[in-house]
Design goal:
mainly alpha; 4 helices; extended
């Protein structure tokens, strides 16, 4: 059995200047960012539920979680998924410091 869904997207691009293939690539690129960065921040670090009344704290928290994801992607053991890298470094803090200092 085959099923299909119809999705509608809104864009300001001129239909004369863009192809369907280019539009599809743009939509997929957007969701790649959503799935690779924001999903991790929202699900693992529960970033959406953090709030503060102090100006600037939320922005710093966002920057720190983004930096942590970048560090885990570049510094952690490459054979492990990102979540496992975070756990591995959390249980071996000396390893985490050595990885940061070696780069």
């Amino acid at each position: 059995m085959r099923s299909s869904d119809t999705r509608y997207f809104l864009t300001s691009l001129d239909p004369e200047c863009v192809t369907a293939r280019e539009l599809l690539a743009a939509v997929r690129a957007h969701w790649q960012i959503e799935n690779s960065l924001f999903f991790i921040k929202d699900r693992w670090w529960d970033e959406d539920r953090h709030w503060t009344r102090r100006p600037g704290v939320a922005e710093w928290f966002t920057q720190l979680t983004t930096a942590a994801i970048v560090a885990l992607r570049t510094l952690g053991p490459p054979q492990l998924p990102i979540r496992a890298r975070a756990d591995h470094i959390a249980w071996n803090p000396t390893l985490g410091l050595n990885l940061l200092l070696a780069e």
